[in-house]
Amino acid sequence: xxxxxxxxxxxxxxxxxxxxxxxxxxxxxxxxxxxxxxxxxxxxxxxxxxxxxxxxxxxxxxxxxxxxxxxxxxxxxxxxxxxxxxxxxxxxxxxxxxxxxxxxxxxxxxxxxxxxxxxxxxxxxxxxxxxxxxxxxxxxxxxxxxxxxxxxxxxxxxxxxxxxxxxxxxxxxxxxxxxxxxxxxxxxxxxxxxxxxxxxxxxxxxxxxxxxxxxxxxxxxxxxxxxxxxxxxxxxxxxxxxxxxxxxxxxxxxxxxxxxxxxxxxxxxxxxxxxxxxxxxxxxxxxxxxxxxxxxxxxxxxxxxxxxxxxxxxxxxxxxxxxxxxxxxxxxxxxxxxxxxxxxxxxxxxxxxxxxxxxxxxxxxxxxxxxxxxxxxxxxxxxxxxxxxxxxxxxxxxxxxxxxxxxxxxxxxxxxxxxxxxxxxxxxxxxxxxxxxxxxxxxxxxxxxxxxxxxxxxxxxxxxxxxxxxxxxxxxxxxxxxxxxxxxxxxxxxxxxxxxxxxxxxxxxxxxxxxxxxxxxxxxxxxxxxxxxxxxxxxxxxxxxxxxxxxxxxxxxxxxxxxxxxxxxxxxxxxxxxxxxxxxxxxxxxxxxxxxxxxxxxxxxxxxxxxxxxxxxxxxxxxxxxxxxxxxxxxxxxxxxxxxxxxxxxx
Length: 651
Prior knowledge:
Blueprint: H1 3-34, H2 44-67, H3 80-103, H4 110-143, E1 152-157, H5 161-172, E2 178-184, E3 194-195, E4 198-202, H6 207-213, E5 218-221, H7 228-239, E6 244-247, H8 251-255, E7 265-266, H9 282-289, E8 293-297, H10 302-312, E9 318-323, H11 326-339, E10 345-349, H12 355-365, E11 369-372, H13 379-384, H14 386-406, E12 411-417, H15 426-447, H16 462-468, H17 470-476, E13 480-486, E14 488-490, H18 496-505, E15 510-512, E16 518-519, E17 521-523, H19 524-537, E18 543-546, E19 552-553, H20 554-564, E20 575-577, E21 597-599, E22 605-608, H21 615-630, H22 636-643
């Protein structure tokens, strides 16, 4: 027999013996009480009746308790559920005892039945409920002095349902290393009251004082429904205490059953951004993706890989990942194969700058939807290599979009950036060129003149065109092009957060370019959900923009991250200002001044109205720009500035 079964049988037998002894003792005590604690006063017929009834009383009680599974519970985690089962079993025992008394023709004092029943019920329940507390104090005594100084004294922010559940779960765990000592809630009616034995000691403005009074070293934020500025304000008060901070998952994660309500995570910098988490219609996206062939360029990158995860979860007909960097491509390939073994997945190593490769991919797989995430994006590196920025970002986008047109792709979604707005660096200007390419292609498609789009290639691929009836395909194409513009993505490759974390781990200093520099931020899941939602909204030619709330100072971001890591800024970890990098500006804009905003079904997603430009002139200029880029001309910025009139290179 398995070891766990033997252990259960052993514990169940011990509990049966305890119940038998309790019944024997309870009914004898009832008789003893009836005759004023005088043994000699008890008539012999009553003692005989007591001895005659005990076997039936014991057996019937154990049988009923067994039926109600009172020998199956894990009494270390006893709760109200077990109490309900005990009460039901005890109610059933009343008619059982009555039938037994009639059958055995018992003639005992009425108080004997009543007091014996009450005592046995209370003691049987008491034995079960006392088990966890006895177990706790045994551990307390055996581990004794080692516990001092190691116990987490917890403050819970939020005395609602989630806070109450956390208090109960922490208490159930019988941990000597964690103890909830107080709670905070902004509801004035709750302050001064008790919840699960824990005092509610004040509102958010009392957090710092109560941390000192109750010697708190750990704070758990337990208000998943509170978001935005309200959440940010409370978090900022908490981080001033220097305590370890944790939070429960968001409401959407709990509702979608992604995590349980009591699954804690460490406070992240994204909790301090001061805006609501963007929520999209995932059912709408699932319907849009299902049974489609989807191509993700740059699929190994931070945004591209998350796109692949989201697409794979929505049952596409086929997912094609294209990336130039094999290590990233391999990582996402292995991840998706493990998680989605039935996924029709193809991973291709190649560059969007290679026309022949791109045309072969489109001709082979005929994607219905393209998410174009492949791009160079490091601003200082692109300032040093401006021609590479144009080749990869602008011309690579052109070639991929042209291949989509030629092969009947239904939707083409470009991943853009807020750096494309009034750019001061070549990377931002190249992404603005990408947006203009998308708008120009969309304009030609809507006019039914897609065949007039020039072929910007550095080699001949007429043979490939002949195989696909290029002109006929271009005349018939209905491809919808859309761009999605968002700010800096927290945790993505090249973002400041991973850099700051490495610098903090190394003991500092944390480098910030300028104390006044500000940026818009969003999380990777937000960025990807926006991109996917854009595909469902797209009618062609739009630039979708996320309402990212108020911008954040990078200096503030760095200081908050230092505090969340348990250090004091400028004391434990120094902050060093290094000066703006080439092409960098103090702030980013979401839209150009000329662009207006149009609402969508999602309040946090807007459409920027396209800025009109001469499409014919633009497409003609791109031909010369391509020649300059592939010739690696140092004066390419001047040509870009001529095409992108909002581009103003910094000296």
